[in-house]
Amino acid sequence: MKKFATHIVSLLCCAAAMAQPKVDANNRATFTYRDAKAKEVELKGTGACNGEMERSGDVWTFTTATLSSELYTYNFIVDDERSVTDPGNQLRERDIADTVSFFCVKGYPGSYYMDNNVAHGTVQKVWYPSTLNGMKQRRMAVYLPPQYGSQPMKKFPVLYLLHGSGGDEDAWLGLGRLAQIMDNMIAEGKCQPMVVVMPNGNTDLDAAPGKSPYMKAVPQAKNISSMMGKIEKAFPEEVMPYVAKNYRILTDKRHQAIAGLSLGGLHALFISANNPRQFDYIGLFSPQTTNALSDKQISNVRSIASSISDFATSLPFVSSQWKDKVEHKMSRMDGIDTYSRAEEKLRQQFATPPRLYYIAVGRDDMIKTLVDKHRQRLDNLGAKYVYNESPGAHTWQNWRRYLLDFLPRLFTE
Questions:
Q1: Phi-psi bin for 57: left (phi > 0), alpha (psi -120 to 50), beta?
Q2: pTM of the model
């Protein structure tokens, strides 16, 4: 038994010695990659984790300059064609269709993204009934705080947290580090214990890649079909009733929040505007603020879709199977009215204003012009909101930091 225990300790020490990358006392990270056949290897990642690696025999190495506290992603590019995750690093996450290695540098905010020695909540991956695009069910992830199990009679506030284009129900749990952020902030008393619901907001997919028994499609970074209002329409009809029935949550406006990044910001903006009595806390992180159609164009799209559907079903010589396909395609426009009369809906929403309307965007974000226009629209209505303009662009680095800033503001009495 003693020999076995010694063997286990030895294995753990070896695993620790092999851990990648090595971060020294000055927060410089050294990466190592072993490949005898490679002619050149490049480190490709975020921040200072970029550069040509130096060769010594079969081993390639690269040491960064001092890194600030953050989560960094990287891969090795071998011979300018193969992207390789780090064999010595078990920390990996999927970003849309790609998989990347990552590590965290301690401090703020990096320590919040780490699995620290604190009480941990639980994450459930569940299927809920849905008729969206002819589906039978869709998948969501639900974070339950540590107190959910220890206080079985208590009901909790709820945050609906939405991903961006190309994402899915796993996105905020992956590079978003939602579970780690919640565990660490709750442990420090910096945010209220809450249930966090992360549904799949991709109209064409019912679940993350490899998780669906019905669909095998690969997610795409650009997701135009999810900008047609069907997600927003289905949300209060399918997602919220399922959560209210299956989890101990408070369902009044004061205890419900919704937030999203990029495309999820578009969804959060219009779900809350179309349901002004549901959410007292709204968070828009680098939000897309329009689907680019004016009210007149929305009306035209709706009319055209209806005409095509009517025409297809009226043709006696066309197969019923083809007609069904046409109707299915045209039905994707069913929710387009979600985006109509935006200013009128916002005016109604702020007639009884939410406790928090939070907008955050990077100064170099490609979407900042849209955010500026939305802020001007709110200013014209006399609407009060919190604005956080940060350095940087359309990145997970910013979205995680926005979440860290947003969470302590929720459900304060």
A1: left
A2: 0.87
Four-residue CA torsion sign, 309, 310, 312, 318: positive
At 303 the pLDDT is 57
CA distances in angstroms from 128 to 14, 77, 131, listed in the order given: 44, 40, 10
Burial class (CB in 10 A: 0-12, 13-18, 19+), 123: middle
CA distance 104 to 204: 33
In the chain, which stretches have pLDDT less than 70? 1-19, 292-335
249/157 Cα distance (integer angstroms): 6
Task: State how beta strands 356-362 and 386-390 pair.
Answer: parallel
Beta strands in 110-223 (DSSP E): 122-129, 137-144, 158-162, 195-199
Residue 54 in tokens: 């130096």
For residue 49 the two structure tokens come to: 């984790």
* pLDDT for residue 329: 52
Percent of the chain, pLDDT > 90? 74
Using DSSP's 3-state secondary structure scheme, residue 109 falls into coil
Contact (Cβ atoms closer than 8 angstroms) between residue 81 and residue 12 = no
257 close to 355: Cβ distance less than 8 angstroms: no
pLDDT of the residue at 333: 59
What tokens were used for 218? 């690969």
